Amino acid sequence: MDSGFSLPRVGTSDDPIRLAVLISGGGSGLAALLRYQHTARCHRTVLVLADKADAGGLQHGRDAGITSIGVPLPMQVEKPDRRVAHERLVHSELEAADVELVVLSGYMRILTPWFVRRWKGRLVNIHPSLLPDFPGAHAHRDALAAGVNVTGCTVHLVDEGVDSGPILAQMKVEVRPDDDEEALQERVKRMEHVLYPDVLDRLCSGLILL
Ligand code: GRF
Q1: Closest atom of ligand 1 to CA, residue 30
Q2: From CA 121, how far away is CA 35, in angstroms rounded?
Q3: Which end of the chain, N or C, is surrounded by fewer C-beta atoms within 10 Å?
Q4: What is the sign of the dihedral through the CA atoms of 57, 51, 43 and 160?
Q5: Domain 17-204 falls in which CATH fold?
Q6: In 3-state terms, what secondary structure has residue 69?
Q7: Arithmetic mean of pLDDT over the chain
Q8: How far apart are CA 55 and CA 161, in angstroms?
Q9: Nearest to 210 by CA among 163, 157, 172, 173
Q10: Is the C-beta atom of 17 inside 6 A of ligand 1?
């Protein structure tokens, strides 16, 4: 039992947990989650937030009628304060939307302890490898370079480290001899799109205990 993590309340289809999905790119994982949420679930996406104004995935949120905003880095703030200044902007948007659980879905920023402390237990990530193997931004490249036969994806609670919080679930994916990064990424993503909604169901209905 790690008392540093405070999990969300139990949601129901009448009173679903309010999710924010944070993205940086095309948002295929976001699109899969929104399709899943077409049916009433114990979680509902109320905010899509990207760290770039032109992130392609914002359109998935807009198409679903969900508030979808880009919150770029405040370049007027000097480094090293810029990261936390950005996170303060993100945090304000999450609070303004009464968000209860933050879902990282291809959000390509490493969060600072300042942000993690405020959301610990209510901040989840999906990573495209079987953690603890191949953390970081190049999981598929690293898996191929290591010559493994099996890789996969991992949903975990976020702590102050990089891809290092408590693992909630994993799915395996075979690595084929002719795989390149792109082919492997596509096959792993298909598994991610099944795994993430399922873990969110369990987390938001009180079935995950630490
Ligand atoms: C996913 O593979 C996710 O695991 C990784 O980034 C990718 C995002 O893809 N962190 P998309 O933007 O959801 O298509």
Answers
A1: 13
A2: 25
A3: N
A4: positive
A5: Rossmann fold (3.40.50)
A6: strand
A7: 97
A8: 25
A9: 157
A10: no
Residue 179 Cβ inside 6 Å of ligand 1? The answer reads no
**Predicted local distance difference test score (pLDDT) of residue 1:** 44
Angle of CA points 181, 183, 186, to nearest 5°: 105
What residue segments make up the domains of the chain, in order of their start? 17-204
Give the pLDDT confidence of 4-39 residue by residue, as tens digits.
899 999 999 999 999 999 999 999 999 999 999 999
Establish whether residue 25 lines the binding site of ligand 1, counting it when its CB lies within 6 angstroms of any ligand atom: yes
CA of 32 to the centre of ligand 1 (A): 11
Residue 98 has a CB neighbour count (10 Å cut-off) of 10
> How far is CA 12 from each of CA 95, 205, 207, rounded to the nearest angstrom?
21, 7, 12
Active-site residue, 38 included: no
Please pick, among 60, 86, 127, 156, the residue that the annotation labels catalytic: 127
What's the predicted TM-score (pTM) here? 0.97
User: Is 195 a pocket residue for ligand 1 (Cβ < 6 Å)?
Assistant: no
**Coil, strand or helix at 17:** strand
